[in-house]
């Protein structure tokens, strides 16, 4: 594992996941958002020497903000193989016993170095119920132990496995969507491009929640929200160093999808952004590039929201609305 100087406060490191310690005093935050940020600041993590593990444990502390877990028809886990023969886990959320259902592959956020099946479990239960789709959450391997493109390869392998096993899983193989938040949004759109261009798999649509698309960290929103709330520029720089330690990969279109030359033929997309999110502008730029390539895009910005609100539906009403919007979009694009 790549070592980071653990004299860096874990809040600084965890900023590359969510919780920035410095607030932008010019922002007008709703009482709900203030409550969520107070929750984040109160997360208590045991002292550990390994800063990466501290950051991951800190991120797990976000789980209660999604609200109580919904009951759902069935949940199961399986281990599947990646292209290098290693295994990783997936979690399958089934909303009903209906024999043939559409499917959604979900790639979680966490700046490519954190997140798990558990960090996104609660919103995905709701997503499965509301969309009427089987949701398959992918526990791709994380940086820095597994830098780019290992996690991406896991996501591609998960898609191939779902297509191969569709009949057994009760999935309509012609009705598969991709979805992800933040770093998972980057993975989702790259997998969509690879499916379209090289894998011969038809993806019906993609849902990208405040996706990472650009490694330059140079947009207006990165300058405006360099000190948070939630994501910070310092944390983002750390995250990219962990994910792409070989600098030649930093501007690879499979790492930074905004740099892809040809986006034509990709499936329609819903892109959700947050007004007070440093990732906002690169997500908007990606939407513009998709539209320029002839791809149908619905772009929704949630006013007054911060990065991560999709996972905060137990505190922030807009988080629940974002899950509902995503579910409605998936249901309407079958």
TrEMBL record:
<dbReference type="GO" id="GO:0016787">
    <property type="term" value="F:hydrolase activity"/>
</dbReference>
<dbReference type="InterPro" id="IPR013094">
    <property type="entry name" value="AB_hydrolase_3"/>
</dbReference>
<dbReference type="InterPro" id="IPR029058">
    <property type="entry name" value="AB_hydrolase_fold"/>
</dbReference>
<protein>
    <submittedName>
        <fullName>Alpha/beta hydrolase</fullName>
    </submittedName>
</protein>
<feature type="domain" description="Alpha/beta hydrolase fold-3">
    <location>
        <begin position="104"/>
        <end position="310"/>
    </location>
</feature>
<comment type="similarity">
    <text>Belongs to the 'GDXG' lipolytic enzyme family.</text>
</comment>
<dbReference type="InterPro" id="IPR050300">
    <property type="entry name" value="GDXG_lipolytic_enzyme"/>
</dbReference>
<keyword id="KW-0378">Hydrolase</keyword>
<dbReference type="Pfam" id="PF07859">
    <property type="entry name" value="Abhydrolase_3"/>
</dbReference>
